[in-house]
Specification:
Layout (H helix, E strand, L loop, with lengths): L2 H5 L2 E6 H13 L6 E2 L1 E2 L1 H5 L3 H11 L3 E4 L2 H7 L7 E4 L8 H6 L3 E4 L2 H13 L4 E6 L11 H8 L2 H5 L1 E7 L11 H14 L7 E2 L3 H4 L9 E2 L22 E13 L4 E2 L5 E2 L4 E6 L16 E4 L2 E6 L7 E4 L13 E5 L5 H7 L4 H6 L6 E5 L5
Parallel strand pairs: 1-19, 2-10, 3-4, 4-5, 5-6, 6-7, 7-8, 8-9
Antiparallel strand pairs: 1-11, 11-14, 11-18, 12-13, 14-17, 15-16, 16-17
Helix pairs in contact: 2-4
Bound molecules: pyridoxal-5'-phosphate (PLP).
Length: 371
């Protein structure tokens, strides 16, 4: 261990080789030719875009999506030779910064389309952009009638080098949901307005809906980071994240002893508690109080009492004594307690577990063989 990881209260390991393997798994889901982009927004879902994006570039990924222009500016220098697109598109007046930094806007509304076209027209250039059409998410994107108006507007289109038409699925994690098929049909109708332009529909779960949802470009995020794209089924992805919280103190307690703020847990029998140096300030949701768990030596240990800001308490009475000592660890995320399980225990989703991982953790990046 490096001194920094020795000092830290908790250590987050990010397996970059597993992220690369997951990108290959997603690419191999394709039965028709096409590409897999990578969504690295929100700092690669909390795992560190500056490390994750170059690892995916080395694996062959050539198109990246982030949410905001700031996120794009932070990693643009690391991605030479690859496309980098901003899902939010430009705010009014922000067009020049996209062009100056070789960042592609996703145009989500008629206003963004017209602003980009006007900006390009003023420069006497055709400027690259992706177009987002809404097919049932009702969030961002042109409606079908707005897309029809654009398709008929030769003036506006003359200024835009349209590289991609994309849409986003609302219910891809529920394969039997009727909206999935309806969105395919609506997307076909929208794409027909822009013949010859590549399309993109599937994010992580959409990749596993099957070929009808695969356009030329899939654009997963969560599954790259080990999240399960198949809710309720075995996870086909490799685990990426391991979070180990250091034990500060081990204490033997009698039956009847209250534990933590509010005394919300009372030990039913004599047991041993481990107090771990991570809490809700680190993104361990307070909702995990008396509901979450950790693992020690592969054995589940219940989280008891409330999660405090910097500390969490586990009942380790069932674990062999020699596995639980100050300086040792309780695994807070890992095999047997993955991000999806932690999310479910907290009443949320694994996506939020990842994006809540705090900067206070010491981060170890595992490169793996050959990377
Ligand atoms: C976040 C996002 C994605 C990636 O979704 P995952 O479920 O993480 O794979 C793809 N497309 C859009 C428009 C998004 O907002």
């Amino acid at each position: 261990m490096s001194p920094a990881s020795e000092r830290a209260g908790a250590v987050l390991s990010v397996d970059l080789a597993a992220i690369r393997a997951n990108w290959r798994i997603l690419q191999n889901q394709r039965v028709t030719p096409g590409h897999t982009a990578a969504v690295v927004k929100a700092d690669a879902y909390g795992l560190g875009a500056a490390r994750v994006a170059p690892a995916l570039l080395a694996e062959g990924c050539r198109r990246f999506f982030v949410a905001t222009l700031d996120e794009a500016l932070a990693i643009r220098p690391l991605l030479s030779g690859a496309d980098l697109a901003v899902l939010a598109g430009p705010f009014p007046g922000g067009e020049a910064e996209f062009l100056a930094n070789d960042i592609i806007p996703v145009l989500n509304s008629p206003e963004q389309v017209f602003a980009w076209a006007a900006f390009a027209h003023k420069r006497s250039q055709r400027l690259p952009a992706f177009l987002h059409v809404d097919t049932g998410m009702t969030r961002l994107g042109l409606t079908q009638s707005q897309a029809e108006e654009l398709a008929a507007d030769r003036n506006t289109l003359a200024s835009i080098d349209l590289k991609l038409v994309m849409t986003h699925l609302a219910c891809a994690d529920e394969p039997s949901h009727a909206l999935n098929r309806r969105q395919v049909q609506r997307f076909q109708a929208a794409r027909a307005l822009f013949p010859g332009i590549a399309g993109s529909m599937a994010a992580s779960s959409g990749v596993f809906l099957g070929p009808d949802w695969h356009a030329e470009w899939n654009r997963p995020g969560y599954a790259l980071y080990g999240g399960n794209p198949l809710s309720g089924q075995p996870n086909p992805m490799r685990q990426v994240v391991r979070l180990q919280g250091k034990i500060i103190q081990v204490r033997d307690v009698d039956a009847g002893e209250p534990v933590g703020y509010g005394a919300t847990h009372v030990c039913a029998a004599p047991t041993r508690l481990a107090v771990v140096a991570a809490g809700y300030a680190d993104g361990l949701f307070r909702a995990l109080g008396n509901r979450g768990c950790g693992t020690v030596g592969g054995q589940r240990v219940p989280l008891v009492g409330r999660v405090s800001m910097d500390l969490t308490i586990f009942d380790v009475g069932a674990v062999p004594v020699d596995l639980v000592r100050p300086g040792g660890v309780v695994e807070l995320i890992g095999p047997g307690n993955d991000i999806d399980a932690v999310g479910a225990a907290a009443g949320t989703i694994g996506y939020e577990v990842l994006t809540s991982l705090s900067a206070r953790y010491h981060r170890d990046y595992l490169e793996g063989a050959g990377s």
